Amino acid sequence: MAAVSVKDVQRLFLQAVLSRGVLSLKLAQTLWVKSKVAVMAADNNLEIAHAGTRDEWDAFVKRLNESLDNLDLEFKQFQEETTGRDMYAIVNRKDDAIAQMATDYTAGEIAFFKAMVEQIMLAPHRSFSITSLAALREVSHLKPKSNMSKTQAEVVLASFVAQGWLMKSKRGRYSLSTRALLELMPYLKSTYPDEIATECIICFEVVTKGVICPAAKCQVCMHYHCFSKYIRTRRRECPTCNTEWPGDQERMNPIGEGAARDGDDGRRRVRKTTENEEGDDMDEDEDEDEDGPPPPRTQQSRKGKGKKPAEDSMEVDEDGDEAEEEDSDTPVKTQGKRRASRRS
Ligand SMILES: [Zn+2]
Ligand SMILES: [Zn+2]
């Protein structure tokens, strides 16, 4: 039989990790032990340290990362946003993380994912989440136009969740998963610099699920686990504005899905620079009747419910599949309005 070596532990371990995406420290260590056991079983004489100590683990991770270095990959440790648990994932160190999804998804599906990220990042009141209806609605806004059916879109969404790119809450809201936050951070920082600026005052990582100081003008925010630690060890007041804080996170103002209000998802938001970029290369596949001028604004009323003035072009009824497709065709004239309502 072929000879095995210590390298095989890395190989087996990587295979196991890659099939799981994000994993806890405990699971990662279990997979590590299993990989060692498997290799040792193949060759009794092979010398592999297997005391399972933290030092041994750290040394293994270090060697693994030396192997991954040439590929611009890293087996990275981080804290899960919701729980503060120690987690690991293989992450791409290049900031083209979305491009790497091309191995698993079609261009149209990746465009759908980017649209999801956009709606999640721009969701009002820092809810950093959207409903399934709002998610499915994005399909009709994709550029170039997508012929993805609603059922296909649901399958793709389920796959985003299964692959650990998105999270779906009990209430059915989609948000960015730990993996997405980890791997897409360079992309998020360059694309949504304002929205991503909500940094935890304790651990300095981005907060998309946590609490924010109830004082009107104060922007101090923390992860839930950072808040618990803070409350346990310090006085119950905001470290910046000294507003008295409740000791209970439920009574703090939420960041994340708890911040969503009824009607938030009734309209979609579009990043202003997206509009500009897309405006620059307004393309033929946008409308069938090419060569002609951009579609007239009368599109609004052509098949819509007739009640919508043009100014509302970016505010779309959730339940109007028909009405939704329209405003994506009239980007230029409505830009100003969209910008204005982006942060409302
Ligand atoms: Zn934190
Ligand atoms: Zn404060």
Automatic annotation (TrEMBL):
UniProt xrefs under PROSITE patterns: ZF_RING_2
UniProt catalytic activity: S-ubiquitinyl-[E2 ubiquitin-conjugating enzyme]-L-cysteine + [acceptor protein]-L-lysine = [E2 ubiquitin-conjugating enzyme]-L-cysteine + N(6)-ubiquitinyl-[acceptor protein]-L-lysine
UniProt biased composition (Acidic residues): 276-292, 312-329
Biased composition annotated in UniProt, kind: Basic and acidic residues: 259-275
InterPro entries according to UniProt: Nse1, Nse1_RING_C4HC3-type, WH-like_DNA-bd_sf, Znf_RING, Znf_RING/FYVE/PHD
EC numbers, comma separated: 2.3.2.27
Domain of life: Eukaryota
Domain RING-type: 200-242
An example Gene Ontology CC term for this record: Smc5-Smc6 complex
Function of the molecule: Acts in a DNA repair pathway for removal of UV-induced DNA damage that is distinct from classical nucleotide excision repair and in repair of ionizing radiation damage. Functions in homologous recombination repair of DNA double strand breaks and in recovery of stalled replication forks.
Protein name, entry field: Non-structural maintenance of chromosomes element 1 homolog
Species for this entry: Mycena maculata
Top-level taxonomy: Eukaryota, Fungi, Dikarya, Basidiomycota, Agaricomycotina
